[in-house]
Specification:
InterPro entries: Amidase, Amidase_dom, AS_sf, GatA. This protein is about 35% helix and about 15% strand. The chain is built from 15 helices and eleven strands. Bound molecules: glutamine. Glutamine (GLN) binds next to loops.
Length: about 475
């Protein structure tokens, strides 16, 4: 595009065409009505000689990221008519770098779930096997990259929502260090955990998009002021000394044979790079799912208080103020969101706070300390991204605990705030169908670039599986 061989308008048209051809996957909630205009602006900037790192690159963003003048639904009936009055910092930075937003991706309602089945706009289908979920909550963003609509998309990851759908669809999914990417304009789920993260099909693309979206933002009070330089790091490559890698023993249990085989492939690949691979025990991670749901639901119950049908959400005409709010919430929220608000309110309530919320916060502290001490001995930790590949629609959606248990490999990392990358490591054949498996690489706080460098080194050896799903 920089050389003028393809125009941003052509790239956009091709992305829209692919998305339309795979409409049945239900990956997008809306196409961006401003996309043509954005493409024209980029074309003019390129013509004027501006050098743009993402000139004309079509991207998809999760529908909880605001783009001024377009709908942001969060996969909820509550926000069906909401039009963003401003643009999220991460999205603003993509646009400034020349990207064109093709559309807004389907997601679990308010980013609560692990399968994209809780969306008010219907589930997204996994392109590898359409009777299966794409993972969640950023299922639409994952599928947009896996099915080849766009090379890059953004999701959000509170407890695994970028990494797990990446694993289920066979692409990279990266959760940066908490605070690395601005949360300004990302609709809040659990503010102490929420991070924006990219999906991509190469380490080089991950570095490129991270260089664009990461970095300090005065509009987000938890934004970190730390250097970025992901592409520079990639050029410099991994250090000469052998990498010390720890495989987390707690994550070795309860996996399907295909996930264990993928973990073995990762071990062998890392050893092939000269890494010293050992095992490391992080006993606190066994309490991670319980602690995560006792920390994220109180935060969510506070954050979602604004959807009262007055400040935000569709107004319900019914009696007095309380009746009207109750009616708006009853009609606007789906069952999982209601469950979270009830759980979160309960965990914070007088008499239960000490037993639940405050205890969970102590577990969070313990988990953070365990990661910190493991990182005194290891450069990188490894676990599966999920103990199993994509499950079938309905397999877990009737049982909240079974759904929460699916987060067993991702939530401890979120509680510790450290960065993690899900790397596609091949497939497991289930009922005759090949399903992708992801393995998760974890680094210490602010060592995000190490994970992308490692992925690039694995890619160069041919160890990363970037096959496409079998689409018509
Ligand atoms: N599955 C987790 C939850 O439902 C994580 C969701 C997310 O990362 N947004 O809370």
């Amino acid at each position: 595009m920089s050389r003028g061989e393809v125009t941003p308008q052509q790239a956009l048209a091709s992305a829209v065409e692919r998305a339309e051809a795979q409409r049945s996957l239900n990956a997008l909630i809306s196409l961006n009505p401003l996309a043509q205009e954005q493409a024209q602006q980029v074309a003019a900037r390129v013509e004027a000689g501006e050098s743009l790192p993402l000139a004309g690159v079509p991207v998809v963003i999760k529908d909880n990221l605001n783009l001024r003048g377009t709908a942001t639904t969060c996969g909820s009936r509550m926000l069906q008519a909401y039009v963003s009055p401003y643009t999220a910092t991460s999205v603003q930075r993509l646009l400034a770098a020349g990207a064109v937003v093709v559309g807004k991706a389907n997601m679990d309602e308010f980013a609560m779930g692990s399968s994209t089945e809780t969306s008010a706009f219907g589930p997204t289908l996994n392109p590898w096997d359409t009777v299966r979920v794409p993972g969640g909550t950023s299922g639409g963003s994952a599928v947009s990259v896996a099915a080849g609509f766009v090379p890059i998309s953004l999701g959000s990851d509170t407890g695994g929502s970028v990494r797990q759908p990446a694993a289920f669809t066979g692409v990279y999914g990266f959760k940066p260090t908490y605070g690395r990417v601005s949360r300004y304009g990302l609709v809040a789920h659990a503010s102490s955990l929420d991070q924006v993260g990219p999906f991509a099909r190469s380490a080089a693309d991950l570095a490129l998009v991270m260089d664009v979206i990461a970095g300090h933002d005065p509009l987000d009070a938890t934004s970190l002021d730390a250097p970025t330089g992901f592409r520079d790091a990639l050029r410099a490559g991994l250090p000469e000394r052998p990498l010390r890698v720890g495989v987390v023993t707690q994550a070795l249990e309860g996996n399907t044979p295909g996930v264990l085989a993928a973990l073995e492939r990762m071990r062998a690949a890392l050893a092939g790079l000269g890494a010293q691979v050992e095992e490391v025990s992080l006993p606190g991670t066994e309490y991670a799912v319980a602690a995560y749901y006792l920390i994220s639901t109180p935060e969510a119950s506070s954050n979602l208080a604004r959807y009262d049908g007055m400040a935000y959400g569709a107004r319900a005409a019914a009696g007095d103020v309380n009746a009207s709010m109750a009616a708006a919430r009853a009609a606007g929220f789906g069952p999982e969101v209601k469950r979270r608000i009830l759980m979160g309110t309960y965990a914070l309530s007088s008499g239960y706070y000490d037993a639940y919320y405050s205890k969970a916060m102590r577990v969070r502290q313990l988990i953070s300390q365990e990661f910190a001490s493991a990182f005194e001995r290891f450069d990188v930790l490894v676990t599966p991204t999920s103990p199993f590949p994509a499950f079938r629609f309905g397999e877990r959606s009737g049982d909240p605990l079974a759904m929460y248990a699916a987060d067993v490999d991702t939530v401890a990392i979120s509680l510790a705030g450290v960065p993690a990358l899900s790397v596609p490591m091949g497939t497991e054949t289930v009922d005759g169908v090949a399903l992708p498996v992801g393995i998760q690489l974890i680094a210490p706080t602010l060592h995000d670039a190490r994970l992308i460098m490692l992925a690039a080194a694995l890619e160069a050896r041919g160890d990363v599986h970037l096959e496409r799903p079998p689409l018509a």
